[in-house]
């Protein structure tokens, strides 16, 4: 099976190390949407040993903190689904009360036209916050 996350997935690279990478993805209506992608092809958190699970979750939490600092969302959604792409990755999604789906998940039917919370220099601001 070809895996779109095993290669170079689409998005702006914010961080990478030998175990994972963090991407800012282009998701219409959801600026700041990030993915933390494990570099090895495994499907579940329990496929990792305890140290690797801790490393992965540390980066999920770092991305959440960076998004909160930079974007000041009403909420952060964390999701690890893998139903469509069975490769371990976490979605870290800043949510705003006036986004198209709030308070529902972004994959639900929209409730309204969403406000634009994008801003110039977002990737650079997130990189700086991740490095801090």
Chain-wise SSE layout:
Layout: E1 12-16, E2 20-24, E3 34-38, H1 50-71, E4 75-79, E5 89-95, H2 122-131
Antiparallel strand pairs: 1-2, 2-3, 3-5, 4-5
Pattern of helices and strands: EEEHEEH
Q: Main beta sheet, described? A: 5 strands, antiparallel
The assigned CATH architecture is 2-Layer Sandwich
Give me the side-by-side strand order of the main sheet.
1-2-3-5-4
Structural class: alpha+beta
Average residue-wise pLDDT:
93
Anisotropy-based shape: globular
CATH class type: Alpha Beta
Instruction: State the fourth-level CATH superfamily.
Output: HIT-like
Total beta strands: 5
DSSP helix fraction:
10-25%
Structural domain tally: 1
| Number of distinct helices | 2
- Proportion of residues in β-strands: 15-25%
Weakly predicted, low-confidence segments:
none
Radius of gyration from CA coordinates: 15 Å
CATH topology: HIT family, subunit A
- For the termini, the CA-CA separation is 38 Å
Features:
alpha+beta, globular, 132 residues, HIT family, subunit A, five-stranded antiparallel β-sheet
How would you concisely characterize the structure shown here?
This protein is of the alpha+beta class and 132 residues long.
Q: Can you put this structure into words, describing what you see?
A:
- The chain has 2 helices and 5 strands.
- The protein is of the alpha+beta class.
- It has one domain: 2-Layer Sandwich (HIT family, subunit A), CATH 3.30.428.
- Strands 1-2-3-5-4 form a 5-stranded antiparallel sheet, covered by helices on one side.
- Helix 1 (50-71) crosses helix 2 (122-131).
- The radius of gyration is 15 Å and the shape is globular.
- The model has no long low-confidence stretch (mean pLDDT 93).
């Amino acid at each position: 099976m070809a895996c779109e996350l095993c290669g170079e997935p689409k998005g702006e690279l914010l961080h990478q190390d030998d175990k994972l990478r963090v991407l800012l993805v282009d998701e219409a209506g959801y600026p700041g949407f990030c993915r933390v992608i494990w570099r090895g092809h495994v499907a579940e958190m329990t496929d990792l040993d305890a140290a690797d699970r801790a490393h992965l979750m540390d980066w999920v939490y770092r991305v959440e903190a960076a998004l909160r600092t930079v974007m000041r969302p009403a909420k952060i959604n964390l999701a690890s689904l893998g139903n469509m792409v069975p490769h371990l990755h976490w979605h870290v999604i800043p949510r705003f009360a006036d986004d198209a789906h709030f308070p529902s998940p972004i994959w639900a039917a929209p409730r309204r036209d969403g406000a634009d919370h994008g801003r110039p220099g977002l990737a650079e601001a997130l990189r700086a916050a991740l490095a801090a």
